[in-house]
Amino acid sequence: MVTTNAAAPPTPKLLVGLGNPGQKYDRTRHNIGFEVIDSLAKSWSIKLTENKRFQGHFGETRSSSGERLILLKPTTYMNRSGQSVRAFFDWYKLLPSEVLVIYDDMDLPIGRLRLRLSGSAGGHNGMKSIISHLGTQDFPRLRLGISRTNTSDKQANRAVVSHVLGKFAPDERKVIDAAITLANDAVEFSLRKGIERAMSLYNGREAAV
Q1: Which residues are annotated as a binding site for tRNA?
Q2: Active site residue 133
Q3: Residues at the annotated binding site?
Q4: What is the DSSP-derived secondary structure letter of residue 169?
């Protein structure tokens, strides 16, 4: 069971990890959000099951104060992630401040964390979809760095797709595994103490191997 402090600031009720469904995309750079959710589910002994209504794999637990906490991996494919998130918002009557979206970021060095209360999509198609469906960009997000590929402008689009849909090299994999553990710590701290206090502690932190 996940514990929260009732006296703490508002904390997330829906944790969303972004990625693409299917074995083809398993453990690719773009699926780091899925991996964090899977790790949290394992740590908290939560079984994730597919639900067609919500277009995703999800599971839930209760905090010590009795509040529902949901883990979600949309199965809509990345570009339509907002459909799944909006279905949860409408069904559970959530507020934007009650969601924490976890996803990859090419603009951060591999293994670095960045936690924010709001912000633009920054070119991330999954976040573009969520912002569009919720009608706001004012919701918390946790980004994990996957680094950017070096390429010419002429080849940029093709290279970016190849990069984010590719798997990590063995040395990168060690860093990412450590980053997932660090992300778990950041999420758990956010649930106990709130997003803002977690930001001061975890922003800029890089996984150590």
Answers
A1: 25, 77, 79, 125
A2: no
A3: 25, 77, 79, 125
A4: P
